[in-house]
Write a structure and sequence with these properties.
740 residues; alpha+beta; eight-stranded mixed beta sheet; disordered N terminus
């Protein structure tokens, strides 16, 4: 291969927008993965049951693979050699940024040449056998597959900023005809250099190929409903590993060749290659494993359209509820049957897409659904009762569970209606295969091991709760008074809980919900405090500072342990995190999470809610969509901090270019003056707090650098507390009631 006239001939300025490597993997994900990656774990192959297919079939398949696909094999070998030679020249480039760009382009250019041979190899290994129709799944080249990200019918459940990316191949069930991420069973990622599968020599570094697969896995686990782990085939050059990502980290199989695991003698003109492990893996993934063995939650079963139609036909639901269940058309979203959990025998069925989904891998993986109860009838299962809310998440077993927090709240007197109440909840169990016993769903058990009692290495537990209150996303408000009353109720609920020693610590749009089908409200204005259009839910990150209010000694022990772990500086979704916590996470330092931080997050959710509502209003201009992305679309910690320094999350309302008359007119038409002033006043109050906080940080830094005295702290005339927040909302409510 001749060296090019200029190394820059390889550089394509558009490649950075096309390659999945171009969106820098989130540094927080990389930090989370450190210490949570295990290489050369033989249990990966055991879990995939690759040795269960009979040897005779594998031998025949392998023999024909080597013979009939020799040309594809040689192409892969040639491409990897050419890539190695081309990449050897990039050391001549002085600028690190340009060198990295060229490296990415070179790798991508050669990886493209690998797709065709690998696609043909996948098709052969999948279809080989006397029963050619026996394949359950197939690897499809993602670029040739219709795709939506996220699924349009569930887009409201996700925060903006989700990258429009996908792996090289996706593993799909052959019976599915809509290959979205939420139908994906697994995936394969292709890299041209073999060292992408080597363990990192630096303990503080994660290999880019592993990080990229982990990034895809968190999307998979967030968008594929009720999926407990993600399986990926990572091919680097002519070697591969199987990667399994779960809520505890990454497991990687031993490395094997897709061509030959044996030693080939140069003197043997017809060497006998051995790539049987590769053959076994591809056939296990496409022909043998069930969805449960590939990650589906064993306590949940998908509901077919026919079954959903049957449930609906046999039920006597109110028309309003029935109209919200779609069995056909673009609004259809697959339902799932939730088997009984805890000590309750009730069955539940999800209705429509999730209300909220968290985009995390090693986090709690929170998902919130609408559900209806299923009951037995003479003709089969049928819906009954009202729609409820179900939340699933992965919890630390050494912390107080969310169910325990709700039980604590139930003991409190005069609890406002803006606090969600629990019907029941607890950890999730399933019927294990061997032996057949009921087992708790934990990361350790999913991996085939036993749970650890070591609090430093907790095995996360799947936790589920049912709330009797119907919740909808706040941005579905029908008028501004409903919106303002909803947030007023939420702030009052938060204030009440803080006085009781319960701090929420996880404010996101998925935890603040609109209360539908609310009981009749008192019309008298003086009873405004009784209005509860919204409610606060999701207490699995809550801390309890007054354990004496509890009567259950077992819960008391968990609270004491939880309180001892509460020095963590940050909790909650980054996009809505208070600026002081976000900055502390970025630069390091121990910052106590206060109720005021939660209030700042509630303010950002208010701005997010109004903007989401406008985006779903006909005629929304593109300028507003762009501003929404700028204010709430940053995904990395670095980008978020840069965003907050230049543009506050509430600034989308007034940061309108003078020439954008369309956006200006649209905003004035759909946002009233009282609501607009409430947002601006909230933003101003937060800016005051931020300025004082910045001055304090500066003084502390100067003291550390030059040992100068720290000036005495000057208190704000008005801090941003519950009373201030409520006053600003009340002003807007009063104006809207007087001048609707």
């Amino acid at each position: 291969m001749e060296r090019p006239k200029s190394i820059y001939d390889y550089y394509d300025p558009y490649y950075d927008t096309l390659s999945s490597c171009s969106s820098a993997p989130h540094e927080q994900l990389e930090t989370e993965l450190l210490g949570n990656i295990k290489y050369d774990d033989p249990s990966v192959f055991t879990r995939l049951r690759i040795y269960e297919e009979d040897n005779a079939t594998i031998d025949r398949c392998h023999e024909r693979y080597q013979a009939e696909h020799e040309r594809n094999i040689k192409t892969l070998q040639s491409v990897t050699r050419d890539a190695e030679e081309a990449l050897s020249y990039i050391g001549d480039i002085q600028e690190a940024w340009t060198r990295e760009k060229v490296r990415r382009h070179l790798e991508h250019e050669h990886e493209v040449e690998m797709y065709g041979p690998l696609r043909r190899i996948f098709e052969f290994l999948t279809g080989f056998g006397s029963d050619t129709s026996g394949a359950l799944r197939e690897f499809r080249f993602a670029a040739d597959t219709p795709f939506s990200w996220p699924p349009a019918r569930a887009a409201e459940a996700y925060t903006p900023g989700i990258a429009n990316l996908r792996p090289d191949f996706i593993l799909l069930n052959r019976t599915h005809h809509r290959p979205f991420w939420d139908d994906c069973v697994g995936f394969a990622e292709i890299k041209v250099t073999a060292d992408g599968n080597d363990p990192s020599s630096d303990e503080d570094d994660v290999k880019p190929a592993i990080l990229q697969c982990a990034d895809y896995a968190r999307y998979h686990l967030s968008i594929r409903p009720f999926w407990n782990f993600s399986v990926a085939l990572l091919i680097t050059g002519t070697v591969f590993r199987v990667l399994i990502a779960d809520r505890g980290g990454i497991l990687l199989s031993p490395v094997h060749s897709i061509i030959d695991d044996g030693t080939i003698s140069d003197r043997d003109p017809r060497p006998q290659r051995d790539a049987k492990t590769f053959v076994r893996v591809v056939r296990a993934l496409t022909r043998r494993l069930t969805d449960h063995q590939l990650g589906q939650d064993p306590s949940v079963m998908p509901v077919s359209r026919d079954d959903l139609e049957s449930y609906l036909r046999l039920s006597s639901l109110p028309n309003a509820t029935r109209d919200g269940i779609h069995v056909n058309g673009a609004d259809y979203y697959r339902s799932y049957r939730i088997n009984p959990f805890v000590n309750d025998t009730r069955l539940w069925c999800t209705i429509g897409p999730p209300i909220w989904t968290s985009l995390s891998l090693l986090g709690r993986g929170t998902v919130v659904w609408r559900v209806l109860q299923l009951s037995e009838s003479t003709d089969g299962l049928t819906f009954q009762g009202d729609i409820h809310v179900m939340k699933s998440s992965w919890r630390n077993p050494h912390r107080m569970s969310e169910t325990d927090v709700y039980r604590l709240i139930d003991q409190l007197e005069d609890c406002p209606r803006g606090v969600a109440k629990m019907l029941y909840g607890g950890d999730v169990y399933y019927l294990s295969e061997n032996p057949q016993t009921w087992a708790k769903i934990t990361v350790a058990r999913i991996r085939g091991g036993a749970d650890s009692d070591d609090p430093n290495y907790p095995s996360k537990v799947l936790h589920r709760i049912i709330l009797p209150r119907v919740g909808e996303p706040l941005w579905r408000y029908t008028n501004e008074l409903q919106l303002l009353y909803a947030f007023r109720a939420i702030i009052e609920a938060h204030q009440y809980l803080c006085k009781q020693g319960i701090q929420h610590h996880d404010i996101t749009p998925g935890n603040l919900l609109l209360w539908l089908n609310e009981p009749p409200l008192l019309p008298d204005a003086k009873h405004r405090d009784k209005l509860a259009r919204g409610f606060l839910a999701d207490f699995d990150m809550a801390t309890v500072d007054k354990p004496q209010v509890l009567t259950d000694s077992r819960v008391q022990l968990r609270i004491n342990h939880t309180s001892s772990l509460c020095n963590m500086p940050v909790t909650g979704s980054l996009q809505f995190m208070a600026w002081e916590l976000l900055r502390g996470l970025h630069v390091g330092g121990d910052i106590h999470h206060t109720p005021e931080h939660d209030l700042e997050s509630i303010a950002y959710v208010l701005g997010y809610t109004i903007c989401c509502h406008l985006l779903n209003t006909p005629g929304c201009p593109d300028g507003l969509k762009q501003s929404f992305q700028e204010c709430f679309g940053a995904m990395t910690l670095k980008d978020l901090c840069f965003q907050r320094n230049s543009l506050q999350p509430l600034a989308w309302l007034h940061s309108i270019p003078h020439h954008d008359q369309q956006r200006l007119s649209f905003t004035v038409k759909h946002v009233s003056k009282p609501l607009a002033y409430a947002l601006v006043d909230i933003e101003f109050k937060l800016q005051q707090v931020h300025r004082v906080t910045a001055d304090q940080h500066c003084a502390i830094s100067m003291h550390a650098m030059y040992n100068v005295p720290i000036p005495s702290q000057q208190p704000l005339d008005e801090v941003f507390n519950h009373e201030i927040f409520l006053k600003l909302l009340d002003n807007a409510i009063s104006e809207l009631e007087q001048h609707p």
